[in-house]
Amino acid sequence: MSVPRSVALERIAYTLAAPVLAAAPNLSPDGSVNTGMLLAGAAGVGGALLAVKSREGTGRKLVRLSPVVFGAAVDAAAMYTTGWGWDAALAAAWAAAGWWLLPLSRSARRHHRPALAPIPQPARTAPATAAPPVVDDGADPFTRDVRLLWERAGNPGRTIVAHADRHPVTSHDLTMLLRAAEPGRPITGLSEAGVAAAFGVDDDPDVVRFAQVVRQPGRQGGPGWLEVHLTPDEAARRRKAPTEHEWWADRIGATSGPVPGSDFVKKVRDTERKVTHYIAQVPDEQGEPRVNLHALAAALKTKYDEGRLFVTIDGNQVLVSLWDSSPLAQVFPATRELLTPDKDGRWVTGYLGNGQPARNRVYTDRGAAHGLFVAPSGGGKTQLMGLHVAADALFGAVVMLATEAPDEKTAALGEHTARYGVGALYMIRLLRVMVALMEIRGQMRWDDGKVHEWDPKLPGCPYRMLSAYLDEFLSAARNGDYGAEIMDLAELVSVKGRKYGVGLKVAGQSVYVQDGFTQLLCENLRENCIPVVLKVAPKKITDMFRALGIPSENTPDPLPRSFSPAEAGRIERVMAGQPEPPSDSNTGGAGWIIEGKQPDILRTLFMDFKAGIDDFFPDTIATLTDHEIRELELRDLWFDWTEPPRPGEFGPEPDDEDGDDTAPKKRGGGKPRSGQKSGPRRDAVNSPRQALDAIRTFTNA
After folding, report:
1. CB 431 within 8 A of CB 486
2. What is the 3-state secondary structure (H, E, C) of 62-91?
3. What is the reported pTM?
4. Which of 35, 136, 211, 235 is within CB 3.0–4.6 Å of 227 for a Cys-Cys bond?
5. Exposure string over 511-526, b if 16+ CB within 10 A, otherwise e
């Protein structure tokens, strides 16, 4: 075994210094050699004191100073002993201790050569970060090439490539099966960036993906294994030319997409109707799909307010309908076939945004249907009312129409009704007849000799359904002379009319309570009809649908001012100083139909009044039965309702015995004097009997 040079030199120094240390104090105590040895010892003692006070390296310093300090002690002792015996023994002991302990060599600095040769150790296993190549396990050439790239990168995440598969028809796509370099340990510290760097590709989520490994027969699984999909070629193709499933997953069904969590099912193109349908669904555990309409419109390269995009949700499925042009901008001509009620009393009133027919009804399972039509001026209310009048007439009902103010279209409709008139006076007379008919029909016996509630499916009914239309109802209800009674009678008919085949159809521009529409009337009409709301102003949308009982989460967005797309070239027109083309206001007849809890947007059928509407109505006009007319005449309610108020019709005449005989008598239909408020509202009428008793009291019938 070779001895380090520093050890050999130190031992030689102790061997040569020992005789000098023993002889110098005996031959010449005052000599320069002995004096130098004593001074060196004193310096060693001073250095030891300083080493004790220092904060680091104290032990090492004391060990290195120990030969000098103890040598000076041996020299000083030799000066006081007699003879050479003790001096030689102390010097030999000093040399032997230094030769064995080697204080200088053993306390050498770290970067110096060690004092002793290292004890031979058995060869250690190389660390996992520099794992040796896998022994030939029969891997294919592609797997071996991938292993070389992986080992060149330093085996990222302390992993080893167990197997690699090349994806077909690609140059760089592959799937790797990795295992931990140390058996029994999980794979930690491996990132997408580390994998991407090893193969020189981007670390985008669609390029590098990790997948768990499931245990299979003959192969382990769990956290010690990892499957890596590297697909740069597939990602590039998916960005440029994705399939329909891929496009939906990336743009629509992504976590931040318009319909998060949805899976594409299929795409259907209806060439005839010029609409494309996309069907998707979400997992059952996700519940009802959540749809961001504005984001969905942007993904489909359209605008939400163009009226081309419509979404239908059915359970966990969602149907997205994208039309080539807005169906709400189309004109759907009315036909007699569409307006004829089926065996369930349903008929087509228009078409929904998704292309489905929007149907209303002339009766319900509880009796005659009421009606509620709300639209501003020019919104298509009279058109809608005409569709309902035709449907009722084709069903065989007796139709009567009263309007607060005349116009061309309502007059044309009046020609196809049993009775038609204008003004609040005409409307109140119509309502009085409706209330009286409720009592009359409640006593009429059917073919079986019994009295029944009206049901169109039961045979032997002795009367026809009566459908009365009140146009501009709120204006009439605010009339100073007749308004209070009009509202009372309308409430009564809305509550009980359905049982006697009496339907009340109210049309106006508002259903607000503050505008005079009572909450009771609104609730009764809403419960027994399918309301239709057309072209509501944006600021009134929320209040309008709240009044109709629609919750805020189902309140629809306002309709646009036009369903026609904006003309291109606006920048050129601005640069040339040219005016913008006029907007096509084609939203008349567009609105919402409220059959369920959520309003559905629709476009009503178009009835061309200018071309004539005779073809939409039956050849004969249905009327009341002779029995009903006789009973009404007995109650003094069946006459020409356009006449001025009859004496006593609306209360006793004022006493004029002391007045001027030439002064005109005040009629019930007269207007209140300027500045005079209308009289207090009469007590509410709660039954047909109370209404008839009040009428008899006023008319002395």
Report:
1. yes
2. HHHHHHHHHHHHHHHHHHHCCCCHHHHHHH
3. 0.64
4. 211
5. bbeeebbeebbbebbb
Please tell me the distance from the alpha carbon of residue 337 to that of residue 391, in angstroms, as a whole number. 10
The CA radius of gyration of the chain, in Å to the nearest whole number, is: 53
Convert the pLDDT of each residue in 602-623 to its tens digit.
999 999 999 999 999 999 999 9
Give the torsion sign (CA, 687, 688, 689, 694): positive
Q: Which residue has the tokens 């003004």?
A: 423
Q: Which of 645, 652, 649 is nearest to 669 (CA)?
A: 645
Place of tokens 């085949």: 501
**pLDDT tens-digit map of 226-281:** 999 999 988 888 888 888 998 999 889 998 899 999 999 999 999 988 999 999 99
- The span from the CA of 104 to the CA of 6, in Å, is 9
318 membership: H or E segment, kind and range: strand 317-323
Would you say 443 and 663 are in contact if contact means Cβ atoms under 8 Å apart?
no
At 393, which amino acid appears? A
Residue 125, token pair as written in the block? 């296993």
Q: Using an 8 Å Cβ cutoff, are 198 and 156 in contact?
A: yes
Q: Which residues contact 107 (CB under 8 A, 6 or more apart)?
A: 60, 63, 64
Are the C-beta atoms of residues 529 and 369 closer than 8 Å to each other? yes
Percent helix / strand / coil, the chain, rounded to 5: 40, 15, 45
- What is d(CA 23, CA 29) in angstroms, rounded to the nearest whole number? 9
Q: CB 566: neighbour CB atoms within 10 A?
A: 12
In the structure encoding, which two tokens stand for residue 156, read together? Answer: 């990222």
HEC string of 375-406? CCCCCCHHHHHHHHHHHHHHHCCEEEEEECCC
Angle subtended by helix axes 483-496 and 424-441, to nearest 10: 30
The distance from CA 461 to its chain's CA centroid, rounded to whole angstroms, is: 52
Cα gap 213→70, rounded to integer Å: 71
- How many residues are present in the chain? 701
DSSP β-ladder status, 532-534 and 371-374? parallel
d(CA 62, CA 65): 5
Cβ atoms of 512 and 543 within 8 Å: the answer is yes
Determine the Cα–Cα distance for residues 360 and 589; give it in Å rounded to an integer: 15
Q: Both ends of the chain: CA-CA distance in Å?
A: 145
Cα 244 to Cα 264: distance, rounded to the nearest angstrom: 8
